[in-house]
Amino acid sequence: MADDPNQMPGRILLGKSDKPEYLTLSKGNRHGLITGATGTGKTVTLQLLAEGFAKAGTAVFAADIKGDLSGIAMPGDSKPAFVKRAADLGSAYVAEDFNTVI
Ligand SMILES: Nc1ncnc2c1ncn2[C@@H]1O[C@H](COP(=O)(O)OP(=O)(O)O)[C@@H](O)[C@H]1O
Ligand SMILES: [Mg+2]
Predict the structure, then answer these.
(1) Domain containing 44: what range?
(2) Is 97 within a domain?
């Protein structure tokens, strides 16, 4: 959507706390650490980063030992929970695939 605030160029929407949380692409060359207990969203955050950089035209190399990120090679399902989550973030849910070499 052209007026979708979550699809604005120059940043990647990572999720939402009490407000949307973005990574500004111009800060994407800094070091980062994603940490948390099981089920807190580490893998999904990595997927969002890989997809966001790919959309911005940046090749992504990931040492994906367990295959956690491989799902980005196929479009996802439009499950009701995904559609609702996107709506909560002010976006339309769009299932996309990304060019992937494994
Ligand atoms: N940004 C997000 N927005 C909504 N739900 C999320 C988000 N990140 C993760 N989740 C939910 O949490 C679940 C666990 O996330 P996951 O990334 O697999 O956790 P981890 O890798 O930290 O164990 C996902 O299957 C999804 O249902
Ligand atoms: Mg994980």
Answers:
(1) 5-88
(2) no
* 2 Cα to the center of ligand 2, angstroms: 32
Kindly list the distances between the CA atom of residue 64 and the CA atoms of 1, 47, 50, 69, 70, in Å, as whole numbers in the listed order. Answer: 31, 11, 12, 7, 8
Q: Which of 14, 44, 47 to mutate to test the pocket of ligand 1 (most atoms within 8 A of CB)?
A: 44
Domains held by the chain: number:
1
| pTM for the predicted model, two decimal places | 0.85
Position 100 in a domain: no
Hunting for tokens 């009701």 — which residue is that?
80
Each residue's pLDDT tens digit, 47-100 = 999 999 999 999 999 999 988 899 899 998 889 998 998 888 888 888 999 999
3-state secondary structure at position 82:
helix
Q: List residues near ligand 1 (CB under 6 A).
A: 15, 36, 38-44, 85
For residue 98, tell me if it sits in a domain. no
Q: Does residue 95 fall inside a structural domain?
A: no
